[in-house]
Design brief:
This protein has 408 residues and is an all-alpha fold. It has 16 helices and no strands.
């Protein structure tokens, strides 16, 4: 398939995918490593699990609220400067975590600064990829999100090893510096759309009425459509559970007698398996449609959460991580193509940003609710049943969402 009639060089969209892969890997990998640092913060400062989880909730709120803004900015200005600025803020937050002395600093350095830094990693990169690819959009999104899974696998292990070798403060410095290097190099490669380089989107057919960036509904029109708010509610349920699992699965496993390094490996397992989920579900969305694939992810998620209700032994928790990781990766991959399928590309960044914001609200409430339930009951049983109920509800809601454009 030809996407440019004269150039024989590799299509630049693949460079966009590679750069996005790297930024996704370091940013999300660092975020999920918070669970590895959890017990050390609790031991050194005596804070409750709800208080420590609260900083993660601030991260999610900042990610979502600013994601709407940065999504709209990306629609208009492009990704390069936005990603560079957010990467510097993200790296700075992790470096400053090494100086942590008081509770308010946890919420400023991690909650605010890391939250601001993370607010672009999905919205800006995935919205940009959606503009570069018409065909293979799901696969390319899956490859970008495979960076997330790779980071989830590698960085918690690296963080755990760094903590053992040099202490948790030095581990934060190393993570921050690594983020800075990757963002400074990768952000420079990002371009808003193929038109900036005289190219066409991959899979362009010549039918500009359907394939151009102007296709689809505007943000203002979408705000008046029930499909948008149903999609927001469904994604709220997804991320409520996703962030709760990532924050609390390690302390839950340690409570059950699992060694700390083995418990940290649960997060890495989720990340490793999510790579397969991201690529598989991304490819499937190209074949059967993104919305249908999104609902299939719910089926896998519900299966995993049912298993979690009885998982007590170490091997059972790793079995949960294997199944859950597949759904986890699929959800994060398929959401952006689903937005394009339902609403088109005209205001993809802004619409995706709003849906993402509702997801981050779920991610903000989830860990705190689970932490509070544990503090009161000294068990995660009720919290895990809540995650299952929300997954079922999210599937029911998504069944009611239908595309409002013929193609995107």
């Amino acid at each position: 398939m030809s996407t440019t009639p004269t150039s024989k060089r590799p299509y630049y969209g693949y460079t966009i995918v590679a750069a996005s892969f790297c930024m996704q890997g370091v940013s999300v990998g660092a975020m999920v490593s918070y669970g590895v640092f959890f017990s050390y913060l609790q031991q050194d400062f005596g804070w409750s699990r709800a208080f420590i989880s609260g900083a993660s909730s601030v991260v999610m709120i900042m990610m979502g609220a600013l994601g709407i803004l940065f999504g709209r900015m990306n629609d208009r200005l492009g990704p390069q400067r936005i990603l560079l600025a957010s990467g510097i803020c993200l790296a700075g937050g992790y470096v400053l975590m090494s100086t942590l002395q008081a509770g308010w600093q946890l919420y400023v350095f991690y909650g605010l600064m890391v939250g601001i830094g993370l607010s672009t990693h999905d919205i800006v990169t995935l919205s940009t990829v959606a503009r570069w690819f018409r065909s293979r959009r799901g696969l390319m999104t899956g490859l970008v999100k495979a960076g997330t899974g790779t980071g989830q696998f590698i960085i918690p292990i690296v963080a755990s090893s760094l903590i053992a070798l040099a202490g948790w403060r030095n581990a934060y410095v190393a993570i921050g510096l690594g983020i800075l290097v990757v963002y400074v190099l990768a952000a420079r490669l990002m371009k808003r759309s193929p038109a900036e380089m005289g190219l066409q989107p991959y899979g362009h057919t010549g039918d500009n009425s359907k394939q151009g960036d102007a296709s689809g509904v505007s943000f203002g029109v979408a705000l008046r459509m029930p499909q948008l708010w149903l999609a927001c509610l469904s994604y709220f349920c997804v991320i409520f559970g996703a962030i709760t699992v990532l924050v609390h699965i390690v302390p839950h496993a340690i409570d059950g007698g699992m060694p700390e390094r083995s418990a940290a490996a649960l997060v890495s397992t989720i990340g490793a398996v999510s790579v397969a989920g991201r690529i598989t579900m991304g490819t499937m969305s190209d074949r059967i449609g993104s919305r249908k694939t999104f609902m299939l992810c719910f089926v896998v998620l519900i299966t995993a959460l049912l298993w979690l209700q009885i998982a007590s032994a170490g091997w059972m928790l790793f079995a949960f991580a294997l199944v859950y990781g597949f759904a986890h990766g699929g959800f994060y991959t398929v959401m952006s193509p689903t937005v394009a399928e339902i609403f088109g590309l005209k205001s993809h960044g802004a619409i995706f940003g709003l849906i993402y914001f509702f997801g981050t609200l779920g991610g903000a409430f989830g860990p705190v609710v689970a932490g509070r339930l544990f503090d009161v009951q000294q068990t995660y049983t009720t919290a895990f049943w809540l995650l299952l109920a929300l997954a079922v509800f999210g599937l029911i809601v998504m069944l009611r969402v239908r595309p409002v454009v013929s193609s995107g």
